[in-house]
Design brief:
7% of the residues lie in helices and 27% in strands. By secondary structure, the chain is mainly beta. It has one domain. The protein is built from one helix and six strands. Strands 1, 2, 3, 4, 5 and 6 form a six-stranded mixed beta sheet that branches.
């Protein structure tokens, strides 16, 4: 059974996994074929995740999940500029190669 916890920003339920590097990664609780995190439960019952690649494709016991940071509504609102602020990225000069 999945143990879900609420996201600190949007309060939606998330599934916390541990990556191969030992870091924690929050993923949405339902599998998503568009996701990029392969999630499985190891022999100790811990929920693990990794990024599938061409060398190590998705295994039969893994399912694809979407990382929550990609779908969190609070995070996408934080990335938007406040009203009255103009982005200067389009107006900056491109550096010429030397």
């Amino acid at each position: 059974m999945k143990q879900l916890a609420p996201c600190r920003d949007c309060r939606r339920p998330v599934l916390w996994t541990t990556t191969e590097a030992g870091k924690r990664l929050a993923v949405d609780p339902e599998p998503d074929p568009a996701g990029n995190a392969a999630v499985w439960r190891d022999g100790t019952g811990a929920v693990r995740s990794r990024r599938p690649s061409a060398e190590l494709p998705l295994n039969g016991w893994e399912r694809l999940y979407m990382p929550h940071v990609a779908t969190c509504p609070a995070r996408t609102q934080q990335l938007a500029l406040p009203v009255g602020v103009t982005s200067l990225a389009a107006h900056r000069r491109k550096r010429r190669p030397r």
